[in-house]
Amino acid sequence: MTGNITLTMVKPMAVKKGYIGPILAKINEAGFKIIAMKYTKLSLDQAKKFYEVHKERPFYNDLVNFMSSGPIVTAILEKENAVESYRNFIGATNPANAEPGTIRALYGTDLEKNAVHGSDSDENAIIESDFFFSKVERY
Ligand code: ADP
Ligand code: MG
């Protein structure tokens, strides 16, 4: 069964550069419905927990430091086939390889500071949504 939600974050560098508005506008234009959203900041421990699957990777420490370095915007997005659709919309992990016009190509700084997060599976979309949002924060 294809899931209909994905979890995104506008990462700290994209927030710092003033890209919240442009990114949300494109999310809206692309037909994703926002069912939950908040402006927040991850503690180092929260960032470590969120990215726990990557803890053996060489980039893990830098990544969790970066992700807890400033505020983010996180949201649950709804659309048919949301996970795959959103990953196509944001582009490849490395902005240098992302298709022109995708969010990471437009607003990414480098491989780490690649503007946005998108869930990689329906299962993780649910886990990541529950990480940030209670039931009463979803509309
Ligand atoms: P994605 O965000 O596209 O699902 P991954 O789950 O593989 O990519 O990695 C999580 C995040 O870790 C990426 O979005 C990026 O910010 C960072 N990252 C991934 N690979 C590297 C790398 N080789 N060097 C530095 N940062 C990386
Ligand atoms: Mg991933």
List the topology elements.
Blueprint: E1 5-10, H1 12-16, H2 20-29, E2 33-40, H3 44-50, H4 60-67, E3 72-78, H5 82-90, H6 103-107, E4 116-118, H7 122-132
Antiparallel strand pairs: 1-3, 1-4, 2-3
Helix pairs in contact: 3-4
The structure holds adenosine-5'-diphosphate and magnesium ion (MG).
Adenosine-5'-diphosphate binds at residues 54, 59, 63, 93, 111-112, 114, 117, 120.
Model description:
- A four-stranded antiparallel beta sheet has the order 2-3-1-4.
- The protein contains seven helices and four strands.
- It is globular and about 35 Å long.
- It has 139 residues and is of the alpha+beta class.
- The chain has helices at 12-16, 20-29, 44-50, 60-67, 82-90, 103-107, 122-132; strands at residues 5-10, 33-40, 72-78, 116-118.
- The chain has a domain at 5-9 and 26-90 and 117-134: 2-Layer Sandwich (Alpha-Beta Plaits), CATH 3.30.70.
- The structure holds adenosine-5'-diphosphate and magnesium ion.
Short description:
With 139 residues, this protein is α+β, with helices and mostly antiparallel strands. The chain contains 7 helices and 4 strands.
Instruction: Give the mean pLDDT.
Output: 97
Taking the sheet with the most strands, its summary is: 4 strands, antiparallel
Q: Can you name the CATH architecture of the domain at 5-9 and 26-90 and 117-134?
A: 2-Layer Sandwich
| Unreliable parts | none
Described by the principal axes of the CA atoms, the overall outline is: globular
- Give me the secondary-structure category: alpha+beta
Q: How many strand units?
A: 4
- Please estimate the helix content: 25-40%
Please list the strands of the largest sheet in the order they lie side by side.
Answer: 2-3-1-4
Q: List cofactors, ions and other ligands.
A: adenosine-5'-diphosphate, magnesium ion
What is the CATH class designation of the domain at 5-9 and 26-90 and 117-134?
Answer: Alpha Beta
Give me the oligomer status. Answer: single chain
Number of helices: 7
* C-alpha termini separation: 23 Å
CATH superfamily of the domain at 5-9 and 26-90 and 117-134: Nucleoside diphosphate kinase-like domain
- Tell me the strand percentage band: 15-25%
Order of helices and strands: EHHEHHEHHEH
Computed Rg: 14 Å
CATH topology label of the domain at 5-9 and 26-90 and 117-134 = Alpha-Beta Plaits
